[in-house]
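Risk register update: the risk of archive-format incompatibility is retired. Evidence:
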Amino acid sequence: MKKSAVLAILAAAAMMTGCTSAEQVFDKNYVRGFSVEGENGKAAVFSFYDENVEPYSSFAGDLSAVKKEAELGLGKTVFTGHTEIIVLGECDYASVLEFMLNDWKVSPSCLVVYGGPLSAYIMETYGAEKLTDSVNHIIKQGKAPECDIVTVLGGLLSDERSAEIPLIGESGFVGTEIISVK
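Archived output:
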């Protein structure tokens, strides 16, 4: 009888330990928006769904290093699968978007806009939620073309090697910008 009770306690204890090592939702920072610029190094600003987490600026050699730096700085895993918007500065557009779609697994519906040298400022000032809402609104009004990452990357990898995307400036939507593969 004692042996059965001890085995039952040990079995229950073994099953409980599995829960503590699993990564939980609150153990991650979920990226809502991201700005990126730079050719030989990447300057980036992450904006998160959690309003208590300030936008995080990072500079590193490539996008993998930028994300790792953000994770170290924030003390949590950075999850990019729900990213809603990317603000591009000057960079290798096709390789950045391809990396984000294939390696970071951003949503195929993630919007892509151009901010030029103001990309970091735009992400920090407006935030991902406001940018996403504004871009969706101007697309519905017919002032800007569809600019999801799949459409934009498709244009960059096509024979034309270019794509038209919304241009965001200090005062918000300015017009459209044609980006091309260099």
